[in-house]
Specification:
Blueprint lengths: L7 H15 L1 H22 L3 E9 L5 H11 L2 H10 L6 H4 L3 E6 L3 E8 L2 H58 L6 H26 L9 E3 L14 H26 L6 H8 L3 E8 L10 H10 L16 H16 L4 E7 L3 H16 L4 E6 L13 E8 L5 H13 L3 E11 L14 H7 L2
Parallel strand pairs: 5-9, 6-7, 6-8, 8-9
Antiparallel strand pairs: 1-3, 1-4, 2-3
Helix pairs in contact: 1-8, 2-8, 4-6, 6-7, 9-13, 11-12, 11-14
Length: 452
């Protein structure tokens, strides 16, 4: 059967699968943290229970007048009066953020309120609407009284002007020539007509409604009691926070893997160092592929599985001690054919590399192979100056160094006059159960002779 080629989508799915398998504890902790953040955000952003109450403004109204009435509905006076009547005794300042108003069609002011319970929301909406109607009625009454007084003054002034005009018309009619001509009769007729029109205007003015344009304000029924909290609810915020933090953790891992430039393949490492890979050795650590948990942060990372490299293949179980010993002996056998003075280079932050270097140095001491360990700084590598016929053997863990770091290490070795004879890649393995005593390993001399 033909195997389909790998695509970017396949690689992404494989990476997501590795994240879910090897970092599920960390992702679960992030989801719990997101849920807690969502629960905290619900205190600030969850509106609780919402309901509305509608108030009808009768009579013709202008658009700006409707907006003014909407502002009056949430005025401090209205909220203070509503707070004084409510059974749970809030303050007007507390209600300011819980009440909002808007203008709907057909001269309707909508009052929207929010509260911690459905009963409180209903009571608050009804009280705000009722107090608004009372306050608006008081404003309209005061405005009407002032309008009546002003209208009376204007009507009295107009009556005096009409009276003077009528008297002038009578004087003009008398002063018209006594001869009965067509022109004089027409003038007298027009003057009498003007006098009659003025008197009719006075009568119409007396009968006019001074309160024209001032309508009543009516509440359109009680507010409905809400049956469920308004969105976003506590459950929605908790679930949204958990999902958001979980996805952020997954995409954060994928972004980290995409930007990770550490080398893991032997050809790439050998090319960056400019030296061959002599062997790959297993390093047994109590934590397998995990770094030792030091300090509070290290213990937390160990508990959540954040100290385990998820982009590397799963750690294999350690082989028997005899096979591991043979690999270390083969490394020493290959080093023995090179320079007489070999310096074992290992980074100060490479835990598996330091363990492998210690085992190599111990075995080299038993086999009388000249080998010294030198730990260099991972940030700024430096190598001691060379002596006659001296070289370096680099011990590093797979996936711990970038190409530029290895290039800088090779340049430091060249500046020190030392030749890189090769590199040893270390692979952490899980310890096995205590092994039963088996046949002894080959003698050091036979191992070195057989692997030369």
């Amino acid at each position: 059967m033909e195997i389909p080629p790998l695509t970017d989508d396949t690689v992404r799915l494989a990476l997501v699968g590795q994240v879910l398998r090897r970092r599920w504890r960390l992702l679960a902790a992030l989801a719990v943290l997101g849920a807690l953040v969502g629960a905290g955000a619900s205190i600030l952003f969850s509106p609780g229970y919402k309901t509305t109450s509608s108030v009808l403004l009768q009579g013709p109204r202008q658009a700006d007048e409707l907006l003014t009435q909407a502002d009056i509905a949430k005025a401090s006076v209205v909220l203070d009066r509503a707070a004084a009547v409510l059974p749970w005794h809030p303050s007007g300042a507390d209600l300011k953020d819980q009440v909002s108003t808007s203008v709907a069609q057909s001269n309707v002011v909508t009052i929207t309120v929010s509260a911690d319970t459905a009963e409180h929301a209903q009571q608050l909406a009804d009280q705000v609407a009722q107090q608004y109607v009372k306050f608006a009625g008081q404003l309209a009454s005061n405005s009407a009284d002032a309008s009546v007084q002003l209208a009376q003054e204007q009507r009295e002034s107009l009556r005096q002007q009409v009276k003077l005009t009528t008297e002038k018309i009578s004087d003009l009619a008398k002063n018209v020539g006594g001869e009965l001509t067509v022109e004089s009769v027409q003038v007298r007729t027009q003057l009498e007509g003007l006098k009659t029109s003025l008197e009719q205007a006075i009568n119409d003015l007396n009968e006019a409604d001074l309160a024209t344009g001032v309508g009543n304000t009516v509440v359109l029924g009680p507010a409905q009691r809400p049956t469920s909290p308004a969105a976003p609810t506590l459950t929605q915020l908790v679930a949204g926070g958990a999902v958001l933090f979980f996805l952020a953790g997954v995409f954060g891992h994928l972004f980290t893997a995409r930007t990770d430039r550490r080398l893991r393949g032997e050809p790439e490492i050998a090319s960056a160092l400019g030296a061959p890979i002599l062997a790959g050795v297993d390093v047994t650590t109590p934590q397998g592929d995990r770094a030792p948990a030091t300090g509070l942060l290290g213990k937390v990372r160990h508990l959540l599985g954040g100290d385990r490299p998820w982009v590397l293949p799963p750690v294999a179980t350690s082989a028997d001690e005899v096979n591991r010993d043979i690999r270390y002996r083969r490394v020493l056998a290959r080093v023995a054919t090179g320079p007489a003075d070999v310096l074992l280079l290992v980074a100060d932050d490479d835990e598996t590399g330091r363990l492998a270097a210690a085992q190599l140095a111990e075995l080299a001491d038993r086999l009388s192979v000249p080998l010294r360990i030198f730990e260099f700084s991972a940030d700024r590598p430096t190598v001691p100056d060379a002596t006659a016929s001296s070289g370096v053997l680099v011990v590093l863990g797979a996936g711990t160094r970038t190409a530029w770091q290895l290039v800088r290490l090779a340049e430091a070795c060249a500046d020190g006059g030392r030749e890189i004879v090769g590199a040893v890649l270390t692979h952490p393995v899980r310890p096995t159960e205590p092994e039963k005593p088996g046949p002894a390993a080959e003698a050091p001399e036979k191992a070195l002779a057989g692997s030369a």
